[in-house]
Amino acid sequence: MRIKVTILITALILIWSCRPSVEETVDLNVQNWIHGSENCEENIDPPIQVVKYNSNTWILRQNKCINYEGPFMFLFFGEDKALLMDTGATEEDDIFPLYKTVKQIINDWTEKNGEVELIVAHTHNHSDHYAADGQFEGKPNTTVIDLEVEDLMNFYNISNWPEEIVDFELGNRLMKIIPIPGHQASSIALYDTSTKILLTGDTFYPGRLYVKDWNAFKMSIERLVKFTDNYEISTILGNHIEMTQTPGVDYPIETIYQPKEHQLTLSVLELKELSGALTKLGDKPKMEIHNSFIIYPID
């Protein structure tokens, strides 16, 4: 009997040791982000915070002492392409070395995995998300996507904007591109079928949701909700944090210091909360404060 038990335990150990490993990921619900300083002359944080979410995914945040927007950027690796979503709010590479930072990540990754082409894309056409495009233009093996709706339709092969959701392949890593105008005409969301992360840019994030086109925004949020009904979502990530940890309270506009920030992550339930609120508000734009976001129409 003891021999049989020993054989069984040995077999179980072998099966356990040979199982496919589950890749560890950073818990973004508790991730601490650099958030500026009361006195930026004394700030010692790096110009760009680099967080490795997993072996093929990075999240970057610009220091608010360089630009109060403090935008997030996202880098995804596939077997053939690396995709950088957004380039931040500052043009000058001497104070905001985004290309050098991204290039170092790519160099480290390619040593283990092989060469990839870099695609520089954008969640939308606002300057705090494309300011550093010039650092990437003309660089080897790099394509920078232009910013207008027509440019996106041509690059991603979208024939029916904004209703059509299309695939974008990085090489054994499929992305889905979802047009979501309303905050800005060429706004898109991106869904990573690998991590199940849904990027929503400035359309949905813990902050002031500036709505330029009310009806288009409502339709885009409805499109996102329908998408989440059909796809597993691990988390929703936007481009900024503007809310505090106190429900319904945001930081002052253009602040350079945000202690006790709301977490970056949002949930599908909160997205549906936004959708329901927009439905109740109807066709007349109106500001409305929620725990994790503020509906904020603009002219």
Question: How do the helices and strands line up, and which of them pair or pack?
Answer:
Elements: H1 2-17, E1 48-54, E2 57-62, E3 72-77, E4 81-85, H2 98-113, E5 117-121, E6 142-144, H3 149-156, E7 166-169, E8 174-179, E9 188-192, E10 197-201, E11 208-211, H4 214-230, E12 235-238, E13 265-266, H5 268-281, E14 288-289, E15 294-297
Question: Any overview of this molecule?
Answer:
The protein has 299 residues and is α/β, with parallel strands linked by helices. The protein has a single domain (28-297), classed as Metallo-beta-lactamase, Chain A. 24% of the residues lie in helices and 23% in strands. The chain has five helices and 15 strands. A six-stranded mixed sheet has the order 1-2-3-4-5-6, with helices on one face. Helix 4 packs antiparallel against helix 5 (268-281). The longest helix is centred in the last third of the chain and has 17 residues, at 214-230. 39% of the residues are buried.
What about the largest sheet? 6 strands, mixed
From the 3D structure, determine the CATH topology.
Metallo-beta-lactamase, Chain A
Question: How confident is the prediction overall: mean pLDDT?
Answer: 93
Encode the helix/strand succession as letters: HEEEEHEEHEEEEEHEEHEE
Helix content: 10-25%
